[in-house]
Description:
- This protein has five helices and four strands; from the N terminus they run αααβαβαββ.
- By secondary structure, the protein is an alpha+beta fold.
- The protein has two domains: 10-85; 89-186, 2-Layer Sandwich (Alpha-Beta Plaits).
Amino acid sequence: MLVNAYAKSSKLSRLMLCCFVAFLAALIAWDNIVNPHIIQLNTAKAYAAHTESFCKKGRQLDAITKIKKLEAEKLNIDSSYLLKRLFNLESAQMFFTSIENLAHQNNINIPSLKLLAETPEEQEQSSKIGVSKHRAALNVVGKYTSVINFLTQLSQYEQKLDIASIAFSTKGERVDCSMIITIYVTEQGGKK
Length: 192
């Protein structure tokens, strides 16, 4: 029937029918062949853009990590230097006992060596930072050059050592020198 209807139709109708069939075939081909490729290409472009964004963020994070690692290494070096400059509990005990030997080597006498207690504020601060101050009032008697040599040797300690409130008085040829010695002790590597 369709064949008969097609055969009886005019040339223009046949042409229109062929154009319509060709249009339908092109539309179906577009939907089944071309359009999936376009969707896939758009998806690939979006994936590439996201991948580039993630790579850029990764490079930024890597650079930040390297900077933080260098900062951590610098802090580690600084803290190890600081720990070398501080007394530990054992070396602090040895220091106060070695003062007598140092005085004996310089031919001076120590009439008094009195350890001073920390104030409550200092105790609170030292518990926060882990470094405490140990102070001693020291009085030495000897010849002037011997006392100066003694003070020079004290100031040459590798660890941090403060000598304050130095007062000199003379007793004939002998010099009486009183001072307050402060050392800084870290609680690492020992028990209180």
